[in-house]
Amino acid sequence: MSKKVVTVTVKSWEDSDYCTHDVLEVNGKQIFGVHPLSECPEDAIIGRDLISSSEIASFLENFLIENKGKQVKFEYLEVNPYEEEE
Description:
- This is Phage protein.
- It comes from Priestia flexa.
- The longest helix is centred in the C-terminal third of the chain and has 14 residues, at 53-66.
- The protein contains 1 helix and 4 strands, in the order E-E-E-H-E.
- The protein has one domain (5-78).
- The protein has one helix at residues 53-66, and strands spanning 5-14, 20-26, 29-34, 71-78.
- The termini are far apart.
- The protein is of the alpha+beta class.
- The model has no long low-confidence stretch (mean pLDDT 87).
- It is flat and about 45 Å long.
- 0% of the residues are buried.
- The protein has a 4-stranded mixed beta sheet, with no helix packed on it.
- The chain is 16% helix and 36% strand.
C-alpha cells in the first residue's frame, strides 16, 4: 500500500515595486502569506500583520498530527501572480 504524499509548496514573487511576497500552501490550500508592509509600516505587529511564533508552532503541531506516516514533498516555486491561471 502506498503512502499518501502531502505537498508543501512555497510560492514567491516580486511585485512591480520589486518587493518579495511568499505564500505557504499545503496540498494547494494557502496556510500563510508574507507580504511587504511598506504601504502601512505601522501595522508591522506580530500577530496582526506578521505571523507569530505561536501560529507557526500550532501549524506544525497540527500538520504533524494530521499527516503522521505520510510522505511530504516540498516545492519552491517562483510564480507570476499577474498571469491568469487556467
